[in-house]
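Quick one, tokens below:
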């Protein structure tokens, strides 16, 4: 039901997908503009790393043919390793600058967009109200900025685990395993992303709905999501399985079709998880209001003290 309701809300608020996409494009443009200061340096590092990893051969391997996929993934991972090695060897200052922009500033900007989307969905789900993206962005900027900074550092271990998982797949040197690599990649990616989602899903919705401080919002969000932890986790696996498989099938076309939709869908999914876990009624479209089970029907006896 969480997946179905998220799809219905996505369709009812699809204009928000385009607004979020425009915001993401502007955020990426800001980061690219900042990186352009050292454009020639990064271009040189890219060329060197590309040559060492033989990156051009990725387009010749195919992506869904067993050992070919294993080879392509290994080349991409090796390219990333070579790129950072060359960059930090040539100029550590430029390397640090690159990491700050890509791994700190860009995620902070993306998380601000997440809070704005959750705020828009809160207005629609609670009162079937449409709001301005720009107006909501300006109204929530102070709180969304503090959330985004905390979220970036909190997510680092989860992101590191995902990167480690992808790296580990490419280190398996076995011809038989190479033929199962696409399946291993899809399943491992979906599981790791779902674990991250389970421990992050309630934070932004709780911040938006209750307007508490960062730590209180995290506690409320975690308590809410874990009430239906198994359901949230299993639904998240379905979401990411579909996203990864479709991205692999569509290839570069996924940038146009899948990537604009997935972030908005995930934000909506998190709001649905939170509302459902809290027993809060919400609109799924202009004519339909859902009434999830009340907290008294969801909580265990020892959790009854948290009911307000």
């Amino acid at each position: 039901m969480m997946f179905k309701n998220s799809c219905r809300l996505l369709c009812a608020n699809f204009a928000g997908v385009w607004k979020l996409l425009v915001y993401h494009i502007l955020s990426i443009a800001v980061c690219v503009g900042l990186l352009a200061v050292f454009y020639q340096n990064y271009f040189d590092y890219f060329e060197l790393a590309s040559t060492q990893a033989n990156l051009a051969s990725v387009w010749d391997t195919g992506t869904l043919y067993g050992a070919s996929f294993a080879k392509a993934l290994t080349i991409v991972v090796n390219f990333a390793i070579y790129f950072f090695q060359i960059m930090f060897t040539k100029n550590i200052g430029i390397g640090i600058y690159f990491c700050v922009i890509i791994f700190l500033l860009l995620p902070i900007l993306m998380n601000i967009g997440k809070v704005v989307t959750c705020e828009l969905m809160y207005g629609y789900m609670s009162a079937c109200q449409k709001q301005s993206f720009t107006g909501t962005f300006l109204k929530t900027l102070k709180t969304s900025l503090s959330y985004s900074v905390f979220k970036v550092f909190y997510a680092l271990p989860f992101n590191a685990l995902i990167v480690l998982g992808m790296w580990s797949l490419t280190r398996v040197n076995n011809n038989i395993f190479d033929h199962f690599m696409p399946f291993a990649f899809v399943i491992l990616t979906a599981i790791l992303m779902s674990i991250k989602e389970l421990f992050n899903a309630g934070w932004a919705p709780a911040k938006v709905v209750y307007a508490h401080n960062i730590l209180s919002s995290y506690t409320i969000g975690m308590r809410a999501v874990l009430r239906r932890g198994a359901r949230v986790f299993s639904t998240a696996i379905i979401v990411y399985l579909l996203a990864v498989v479709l991205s692999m099938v569509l290839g570069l076309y996924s940038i146009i079709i899948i990537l604009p939709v997935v972030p908005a869908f995930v934000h909506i999914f998190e709001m649905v998880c939170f509302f459902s876990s809290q027993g809060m009624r919400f609109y799924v479209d202009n004519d339909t209001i859902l009434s999830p089970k009340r907290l008294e029907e969801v909580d265990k006896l020892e959790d009854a003290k948290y009911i307000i």
